[in-house]
Amino acid sequence: MAVRPEGTPCWADAMFSDVEGAKSFYGDVLGWTFGEASSEYGNYTQAYVDGKAVAAVVPPMPGQEGQSQWCLYLASPDAAATAAKIREHGGEVLMEPMQVGEFGTMCLAREPSGAVFGVWQAGVHEGFEAPPEQPGAFCWAEFFTRDPEATDAFLPAVFPYTAKQMQDAVMDFRLFEIGGDMVLGRMKMTEDFPPEVPSYVNVYFTVDNCDDAVARAAKLGGVLRFGPMDTPFGRFAALSDPQGANFSVIDVTTTVGAMPQTTDVS
Question: Is 0.90 topped by the overall pTM?
Fold first, then answer.
């Protein structure tokens, strides 16, 4: 698998104070299996579907305990150069680029509206191995933001995105593309979101049946936040896991309606 183009989502992980609980939940809901915890790297544990890496879970480092959340990593050929661009365009570097053995180099950042994301410069670990249509695999992600103007200015300044705005009277939604391929979305957070919920990145995982996945999640202590809902992209639902991490599930084979109209953004 070739290293992904700059700006493409390439990996996702989450810190959980109860890693075994997270493994049990995602194993049941998404069909993940787990590798051995890597004690050299803080008990970082990779998740797999059919032997292909899809994500990772890790216990928090001392002093980093807090609500669990998924972190999306965007591909970079040079993490240090990307970190400099992040600063230059109003973002904040939370963790300076750090080499992780031979696996690659990581950096954590916050965009101007407050959403935290990662940057990954691949070494031997190139990122997701399972294709997005495979149940259990990462499929899509969106920056949920309270300040879309700030996010919309920042993302294409740091990464080589072109943007399209969805023509929708109700929803303020933008798509970011690389080479004509949709790679990322941006959603304006409405009043439906409690004021204490900050901007964040929402990750989507593929499932073969959205309603069944929601039922499994609810049975295991997950909370349904939205949906299930039919869209032209698939039937999806937004959930929180028992430790508070937000994520969505989508069945991309069940689509309803015509694809929305978009206009190019200069």
Answer: yes
